[in-house]
């Protein structure tokens, strides 16, 4: 009768230690990657929100600039002067160049 010899396939303590900490490191790295990905996504959303606010403020500024230009136009000023009963005098006008 031939005995079947069992092969000893025991895992040593050192191997268990290595496997445990390798799997722990893998899980921790996965968690860090997910956390950092969530933070990056949140930052991107915040940036897009700020860009939207900046764009809307630029449109508002442009609209207000156009209104100022309309109100300071020569025709409008002349109309207001005439309504107030004042006279237009060319000698009092000073042109300033930028």
TrEMBL record:
Keyword Transmembrane helix: yes
The organism's place on the tree of life at top rank: Bacteria
Sorted UniProt keywords: Membrane, Transmembrane, Transmembrane helix
TM helices/strands, residue ranges: 20-41
Protein name, per record: Cell division protein FtsL
Species annotation: Candidatus Coprosoma intestinipullorum
Organism placement in taxonomy: Bacteria, Bacillati, Bacillota, Bacillota incertae sedis, Candidatus Coprosoma
């Amino acid at each position: 009768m031939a005995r079947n010899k069992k092969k000893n396939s025991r895992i040593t303590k050192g191997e268990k230690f290595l496997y445990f900490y390798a799997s722990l490191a893998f899980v921790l790295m996965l968690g860090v990657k997910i956390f950092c990905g969530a933070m990056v996504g949140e930052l991107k959303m915040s940036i897009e929100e700020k860009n939207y606010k900046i764009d809307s403020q630029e449109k508002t500024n442009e609209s207000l600039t156009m209104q100022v230009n309309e109100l300071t136009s020569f025709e409008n000023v002349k109309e207001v002067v005439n309504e107030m009963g004042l006279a237009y005098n060319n000698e009092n006008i000073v042109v300033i160049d930028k």
